[in-house]
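User: quick one, sequence for these tokens?
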């Protein structure tokens, strides 16, 4: 670490000279551990810099060791930490349940709070989120329901089932993903005679064809 003193410090000089990663520096500001720039041009005075340097160990401890991460890296991290299968959709589900705040976005995809992820030590929360939040493509979702593709289409058309997220497919196409907990909830619905639906042979008209179309389903 260089010791040459400056009169003011910029947003890259400051973290570099106190030994913080840029993301740690930004998080320290968000947590109020480092104040906003106090001189012209969005720079920090030597006084603010020196005060932060004197507390650098506590700042590092408070900002943690994990940057904010995208869903895939969050799920990989949790799988390694707990030595368990963590399904796609777990990060989204943890956020949905209030355990993993979204702190920004990268190319339109959410970035999840690395500090909250570091402090997430309850395996049961992760297991429940992985089970409920598991995201399935249309064919896998239909299989999970035990119905034909045509039956699945009627459920979507009627607005009884909505996709929970999207992913990019071939040639930048949109792939709709369905949440396991939504599928489980639908299977418990008394509105549908699942025995009749599942007993309908291939090529026969689905009992679900009589469901009214939901005009605002947007599916």
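Assistant:
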């Amino acid at each position: 670490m260089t010791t040459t003193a400056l009169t003011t410090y910029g947003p890259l000089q400051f973290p570099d000279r106190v030994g913080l990663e840029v993301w740690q520096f930004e998080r320290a500001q968000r947590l109020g551990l480092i104040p906003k720039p106090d001189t012209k041009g969005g720079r920090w005075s030597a006084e603010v810099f020196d005060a932060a340097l004197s507390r650098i160990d506590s700042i590092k401890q408070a900002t943690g060791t994990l940057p904010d991460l995208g869903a895939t890296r969050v799920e990989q991290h949790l799988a390694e930490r707990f030595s368990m299968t963590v399904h796609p959709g777990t990060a989204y589900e943890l956020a949905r349940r209030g355990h993993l705040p979204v702190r920004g976005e990268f190319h339109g995809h959410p970035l999840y709070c690395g500090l909250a992820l570091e402090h997430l030590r309850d395996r049961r929360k992760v297991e429940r989120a992985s089970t409920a939040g598991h995201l399935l493509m249309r064919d896998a979702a239909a299989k999970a329901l035990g119905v034909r593709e045509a039956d699945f289409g009627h459920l979507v058309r009627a607005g009884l089932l909505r996709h929970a997220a999207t992913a990019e497919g071939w040639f930048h196409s949109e792939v709709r993903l369905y949440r396991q907990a939504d599928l489980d909830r639908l299977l418990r619905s008394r509105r549908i005679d699942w025995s009749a639906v599942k007993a309908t042979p291939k090529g026969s008209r689905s009992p679900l064809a009589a469901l009214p179309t939901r005009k605002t389903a947007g599916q």
